[in-house]
Specification:
This protein has helices at about 10-25, 45-50, 60-65, 85-95, 125-140, 150-165, 180-195, 215-245, 270-290, 310-315, 320-325, 335-345, 355-365, and strands at about 30-35, 50-55, 70-75, 80-85, 120, 140-145, 170-175, 200, 255-260, 295-305, 375. It is α/β, with parallel strands linked by helices. The termini are far apart. Bound molecules: nicotinamide-adenine-dinucleotide. Nicotinamide-adenine-dinucleotide binds near residues 174 and 312.
Length: about 375
């Protein structure tokens, strides 16, 4: 993706583009829309494509009655290209001189569960986020791998694209705890894909420690990513969603926080993490009540431990190694003992996988009668009351 999202015109275009996408909504779902700015219409485009003219201040009713279009032209903002597949979008863009060589075509049957949904998963360069993004892409979504580790995010996106077809995944650098960075991410996704259907706030960090060990700097670092980052992400993700749902009446979009079982029950010597996650449930409920008028559902999923993921299994910094070295598990002498200590607490005697979390996300997106909930995925370890 390469547009300058920082110009005034780009910000104005980003504020309008979900309305254009929503105007094209059919029972199939939503198309993709891409902002090209001030480009010249070729004769081929003029003769073969449906072009609609739109005023920047058009009201919701105008968009509801716009009719099908391939290109929307807005004075002062330029051209917006509409396509029902990524290939189609890029083919129309190429009529305007945008470089595009189809490498591998996506097969996108309409029956896939996440067909054509535009999804951002933060912190998806590894761990749960990576697995969630892969599962969503397999079900037909366009996924944005948004992470502060850009090289790793690119690798994840490249792997998804070589499996599922070019243009399925996009890597974008973001720091979820930085407001400008988050605003730029959302605008960029909206300008290049047309809107946002699902925002998964997954990026998270953990610094364990008791009251004596924990310094303010570490506490604030954990809080800024896990708690404040969720607020910042939801603030900017909700903007295009509101507009889209208002025009395509009866449709829903979703914000989902990857919370934790530690957001439902306190965690000894891990209060910086648990406190921020508890706070995340408070934000989830409050955002849900505020955004319900705009058909934005806001829910949290609360996974148990993902033992195979890097957070636990990293041979240097992983929690298995840390907990063994700090004696957190009484009597544990090996990494296996640490694992047994934790698995003994789980009635179903297994950890939580990215597929388990993705299935919970599918449920929350597909259902339309639940918001503000926190769904445990813990093998029975944490039960709601
Ligand atoms: N691993 C578990 O056992 C477990 C259990 C319950 C909940 N969770 C939650 O799942 C989520 C993902 O955890 P994970 O174990 O996959 O973590 P992980 O450490 O494997 O991956 C986290 C990713 O987030 C990225 N990231 C960190 N800070 C960021 C920032 N400021 N901006 C953008 N990206 C950032 C990292 O670069 C990394 O790619 C977290 O919210 C975590 O609290 C994890």
């Amino acid at each position: 993706m390469q547009v300058d999202t920082n110009t005034k015109t780009a910000k104005q275009a980003a504020a309008l583009i979900p309305a254009i996408r929503a105007s094209q909504h059919t029972e199939k779902g939503f198309p993709l829309v891409r902002w090209l700015g001030d480009v010249k219409l070729s004769t081929e485009a003029k003769d073969s494509l449906i072009i609609r003219n739109i005023e920047a201040n058009a009201d919701d009713e105008f968009f509801r009655n716009l009719g099908a279009a391939d290109i929307a032209q807005v004075p002062g903002l330029g051209s917006f290209i509409i396509g029902w597949t990524y290939d189609e979008l890029m083919h129309i863009s190429s009529l305007f001189g945008v470089n595009y060589k189809p490498v591998k075509k996506r097969e996108l049957p309409f029956y896939k569960r996440m067909f054509q949904k535009i999804v951002i998963v933060t912190g998806s360069a590894q761990g749960f986020g990576q697995g969630i993004a892969e599962e969503l892409a397999r079900e037909g979504a366009y996924v944005v791998i948004a992470d502060m580790n850009l090289p790793l995010a690119r690798k994840v996106a490249d792997d998804i694209n070589s499996d599922l077809g070019d243009g399925t995944a996009f890597a974008v650098e973001v720091d979820v705890s930085n407001e400008e960075s988050m605003e730029a991410l959302i605008n960029r996704v909206v300008l290049e894909l047309g809107g946002l259907d699902l925002f998964v706030s997954n990026a998270g960090v953990l610094r364990a420690g008791d009251l004596e060990e924990m310094d303010l700097k570490s506490f604030e670092f954990v809080t800024k990513v896990n708690y404040t980052g969720y607020f910042i992400g939801s603030k900017y993700a909700a903007r295009p969603m509101r507009l889209q749902n208002r025009i395509a009446k009866g449709t829903y979009t979703d914000i989902i926080q990857v919370n934790s079982k530690s957001g439902l029950e306190g965690s000894s010597k891990n209060f910086a993490y648990a406190g921020g996650k508890f706070g995340g449930i408070g934000l989830t409920q409050s955002f849900a009540k505020e955004l319900v008028v705009d058909n934005i559902k806001v829910n949290a999923v609360c996974p148990g431990n993902y033992y195979e993921g890097p957070l636990w299994s990293d041979p240097v910094n992983g929690l298995f190694v840390q907990y063994l070295e700090t004696g957190k598990c009484p009597g544990a002498e090996t990494l296996e003992d640490v694992y047994e200590f934790y698995i003994d607490k789980v009635p179903m005697r297994k950890g939580c996988s990215p597929l388990d979390v993705a299935r919970a996300i599918f449920y929350l997106v597909e259902q339309t009668n639940e918001t503000g909930q926190a769904l445990p995925i813990t093998g029975g370890q944490t039960m709601l009351n």
